[in-house]
Design a protein that fits this description.
Helices cover 33% and strands 34% of the residues. It is built from four helices and four strands, in the order βαβαααββ. Helix 3 packs antiparallel against helix 4. The longest helix has 15 residues.
């Protein structure tokens, strides 16, 4: 059995961006995480220590989103590396970081970065 944990569109208000205005005023962002890990035992035992707590994953993402960066690539990279180091059970990982209503894009809904292995 292959197992994954998915957390979609965690919403944040943060201060990421190249333009000075973005660093002062901030913007809305979303982060989505898809991770693969062998958590099959949790399907039988109902024990939290047999899986990766999505609440703990969200805490890591929140902490990294609170650190201002110019580039979404940098934010996504920090989240990716931190999740990998915090949860050694992860065998594959995808991190999506999107800036909503990005400046300079006209009427774009979002702009983002996806890191995956």
């Amino acid at each position: 059995m292959k197992t994954s944990i998915q957390i979609d569109n965690i919403r944040f208000y943060a201060y990421h961006g190249v333009m000075e205005q973005e660093q002062i005023v901030g913007n809305h962002f979303t982060v989505s995480i898809l991770l693969e890990a062998d958590v099959v035992k949790a399907t039988a035992t109902d024990e939290l220590d047999e899986t990766i707590s999505y609440a703990d994953v969200c805490d890591v993402v929140k902490e990294e989103m609170e650190i201002p960066s110019k580039l979404l690539e940098h934010v996504a990279g920090r989240i990716y590396r931190r999740l990998r180091s915090t949860f050694p059970k992860i065998t594959a990982l995808e991190v999506k970081v999107y800036k909503l209503n990005p400046p300079g894009c006209g009427e774009a809904e979002r702009a983002g970065v996806i890191l995956r292995d």
